[in-house]
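I am writing to request your help with a piece of structural work I have in hand. I am sending you one protein, given as its amino acid sequence and as whole-number tokens for its backbone shapes. Kindly check, if you would, that the fold set down in the tokens agrees with what the sequence suggests. You will find the record immediately after this paragraph:
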Amino acid sequence: MRIETKRLGRALVVRCFGELDLASAAEFRQVVDAKLAEWEGVRQIVLNLGQVTFVDSSGLGAILGRYKRIQQREGRMVLVEVPPNLRRLLEFSGIFKLIPTRASEEEALKLA
């Protein structure tokens, strides 16, 4: 998995490429947590899943863990560009009841 991050105001934009699974979940957690520690003013995580091909339970756990961390800062997480092959899995997991989705990063950033 490849992970790109950037800060836009009070938002941390995270773009993931590849599989978010047992093999990559720890790296995902480490990268996002490091950026949250480095950038204290971040109040929103925009997680772009547009280039993610697979997510397993470890990946779901890593996403939910970052959701909890940003909530501790009284912030929010938004999932963007969720591909159709992941949408069904995420719906079944109940994650959409907790984390809103938007079609694009631009739409998600308007929520901040």
Strands lie at 2-8, 11-20, 44-55, 76-80, 101-102. The first strand starts at residue 2 and ends at 8. The chain has a mean pLDDT of 96.
